[in-house]
Amino acid sequence: MEMIYTLPFFIRNDEKYCSYDLDLAHRCFSSLQLSDDVLVVLYNQGCLTNDEIEDFLSNYRIRTIMIGNGENIGIAKARQLCFEYIWENYSEVPFICEIHLDMVFTKNWHIPLVDFLKVSDEPMVSPGIITSNGELHPINKGVSIGKVPMEYKKLEILLNRVIKEEIWEGFVHPVIHKSNILQEIGGYDYHFLKGKQGYEDDSILLGYLYYMGTRTNWKPKAYLKSYVYHASMAQRMTLQGKEEDFNLNLRGLFYQYGGYGFKFLSKLHKNDDSFQKLFENVLKQL
């Protein structure tokens, strides 16, 4: 086994959203089971019990290991505890993948990315993604290629049609990490990231930037030889208290990496000036 998946498993406790989330999970696992040798370490974030999740997962040909007991402890902490479980119990597995429930995969989508990492100095890599509104990320944000089919065979054809033998700068989920480097940078430090969501990706990108060395001008990469469907933010933006969580994690990010962390993030996110503005605000307060 070369790779283990990690997944914060969260079903919203609301009649309006519960069936929608279960449908997301069904589409995710139905597609994931097509790949070879799949093992998923998932953290139960709620609102189903562990028994209910196990019953749900019994419908799919996927090996799973469940940790957590249904409490929403936040994305960063849930993912970190999945990482730590893998490091403790599967230290020989070289790659760790982060996925979300709102994703759909083609068979063995990960193989081109794993092969890329085997011969590259890169610590991590993403595929390209197609979002629910038909945008291709990271190459064409804001531009839709048209309506995305929901029927799997048609979606599979679309995902295979847009692949290219190209590497682009940019970061999206899913992402595949080299496990040993992820462990060396520490993963997600939830002592700083106390909110349930927000800026966890920026935290880990800075960890990789410092690991690779700022002199290298490192940026995350996407290898477009593989594409995944990712609805993108399909659950997160409906949660109550999200603004407070984002602000809490932004403060934690500043405590962890300081003003220069914002400065470096403005370079990592070349089309987003929000971190440059945050850096300038820090300077004004001195």
Provide a descriptive summary of the structure in words:
This protein is an alpha/beta fold and 286 residues long. The chain has one domain (3-284): Spore Coat Polysaccharide Biosynthesis Protein SpsA, Chain A (Alpha-Beta Complex). Helices cover 41% and strands 21% of the residues. It is built from 9 helices and 11 strands. Strands 1, 2, 3, 4, 5, 6, 7, 8, 9, 10 and 11 form an 11-stranded mixed β-sheet that branches. α2 links the parallel β2 and β3. The longest helix is centred in the C-terminal third of the chain and has 27 residues, at 242-268. It starts with a strand and ends with a helix. The mean pLDDT is 94.
Question: In which range does the helix fraction lie?
Answer: 40-55%
Tell me the count of domains.
1
Output the helix-strand order: EHEHEHEEHEEEHEEHHEHH
Q: How big is the Rg?
A: 18 Å
**Number of DSSP strands?**
11
Characterize the biggest β-sheet. Answer: 11 strands, mixed
Counting helices, strands and paired strands, the structural category is alpha/beta
What's the architecture, going by CATH?
Alpha-Beta Complex
User: What is the overall number of helices?
Assistant: 9
First-last Cα distance:
51 Å
Level-1 CATH class name: Alpha Beta
- Percent range for β-strand residues: 15-25%
Which spans of ≥5 residues are poorly predicted at pLDDT below 50?
none
**3D shape:** globular
Short description:
This is Glycosyltransferase, GT2 family. This protein is of the alpha/beta class.
Strand and helix layout:
Layout: E1 3-10, H1 15-32, E2 39-46, H2 50-57, E3 63-67, H3 75-89, E4 95-98, E5 103-104, H4 111-118, E6 124-130, E7 135-137, E8 140-144, H5 152-161, E9 167-169, E10 175-178, H6 179-185, H7 200-212, E11 221-230, H8 242-268, H9 274-284
Parallel strand pairs: 1-2, 1-4, 2-3, 6-11
Antiparallel strand pairs: 4-10, 5-11, 6-7, 6-10, 7-8, 9-11
Helix pairs in contact: 7-8, 8-9
